[in-house]
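Please decode residue identities from the backbone states below.
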């Protein structure tokens, strides 16, 4: 072999891609381990959990009460003792730490030195930026090491960890995989707070979590909260668990209180344990069905209010509707009931679709222009790069 052939052979070997093969391990070589529980049956170390419920159920206050139990080694709502005090990390885009989160933690009796609230991210030059759970979860590795480990990470809301459409399963799975990996790597229970989609009372509680069903599928446990109408009575129940029992609940109330400095806040008062499935437990306190929803829960009425000030882009209108807990199916139905007129401007990737109420507003008008509204809707939909409503 001459030098030219030798060099060609070396280059060929360098350009040859690595040969991959499946790493199949015999089950006989995998040592079984027990689930490591933080709150036995409810919160597990190294797992993702979802805490969902309608507005007004006090989900954040409830979770802060559980964080207080973790940081002090106190007792869980069912009377079990927290085995070992631990640290907690909190990220919230909805509540101010100074006037909401910390006062509620104080009222719950938390050890504040063990609670760390994420306020943003900084670089070596001291420059600060907001913390984005959809891209910055990996930065928490150093944070966990610096504070000596974390027992629980609170993400409020959990949809903030998804970069993309929260109604698309692939987007949700990609976004939450970093969260799942973080939980496993740090033996940390991650609890993401979410909302119920509107109009789901009576259906499977785990299926009522807003967004793609991938949220509930990826979470090992889904906890749900509900509040009784015209009462302070609330319940927390296990709607789904891949690692333990998935029934039973506990009652609670949210009560006002005043902490040092005359600061008014709220805290959780836990009540009795409840037997039964999550659907039965929630059904007993909600007592609402689709036929008896008031105007505030009517998707068409909500969309009418959103568009009453003038046209909006379809993206913005749907964003406001989904942000208020309405599903894609409900938004489509509301658009059809109101005979929303959609118009398109621009071309190709610059196309923008606007939604507007017709002068004769659907069912509120004696003779709505059905054909024109539906024709405009179909034409505009063809130009939208989005999930079909």
């Amino acid at each position: 072999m001459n030098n030219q052939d030798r060099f060609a052979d070396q280059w060929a070997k360098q350009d040859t891609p690595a040969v991959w093969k499946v790493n199949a391990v015999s089950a006989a070589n995998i040592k079984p381990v027990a689930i490591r529980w933080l709150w036995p049956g409810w919160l597990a170390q190294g797992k993702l959990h979802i805490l969902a419920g309608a507005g007004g159920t006090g989900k954040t206050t409830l979770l802060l009460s559980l964080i207080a139990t973790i940081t002090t080694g106190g007792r869980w709502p069912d009377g079990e003792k927290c085995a070992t005090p631990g640290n907690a990390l909190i990220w919230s885009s909805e509540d101010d730490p100074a006037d909401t989160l910390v006062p509620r933690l104080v009222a719950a009796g938390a050890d504040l030195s063990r609670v760390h609230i994420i306020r943003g991210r900084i670089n070596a030059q001291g420059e600060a930026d907001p913390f984005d759970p959809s891209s910055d979860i990996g930065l928490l590795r150093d944070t966990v090491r610096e504070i000596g480990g974390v027992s629980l990470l609170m993400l409020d809301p959990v949809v903030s960890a998804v970069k993309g459409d929260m109604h698309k399963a692939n987007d949700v799975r990609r976004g939450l995989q970093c969260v799942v990996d973080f939980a496993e790597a740090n033996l940390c229970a991650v609890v993401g707070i979410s909302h119920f989609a509107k109009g789901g009372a009576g259906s499977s509680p785990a299926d009522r979590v807003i967004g793609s069903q991938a949220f509930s599928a990826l979470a090992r446990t889904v906890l749900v909260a509900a509040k009784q109408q015209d009462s302070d009575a609330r319940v927390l129940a296990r709607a789904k668990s891949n690692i333990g029992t998935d029934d039973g609940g506990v009652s609670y109330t949210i009560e006002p209180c005043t902490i040092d400095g005359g600061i008014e806040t709220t805290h959780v008062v836990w009540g009795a344990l409840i037997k039964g499935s999550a659907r039965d437990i929630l059904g007993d306190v909600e007592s609402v069905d689709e036929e008896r929803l008031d105007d505030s829960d009517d998707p068409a009425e909500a969309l009418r209010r959103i568009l009453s000030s003038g046209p909006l882009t379809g993206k913005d209108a749907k964003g406001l509707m989904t942000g208020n807990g309405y599903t894609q199916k409900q938004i489509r139905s509301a658009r059809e009931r109101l005979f929303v007129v959609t118009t398109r401007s621009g071309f190709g990737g610059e196309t923008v679709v606007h939604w507007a109420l017709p002068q004769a507003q659907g069912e509120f008008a004696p003779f709505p222009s059905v054909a024109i509204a539906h024709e405009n809707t179909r034409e505009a939909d063809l130009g939208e790069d989005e999930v079909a409503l």
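Observation: The domain at 294-381 is CATH 1.10.10 (Arc Repressor Mutant, subunit A).
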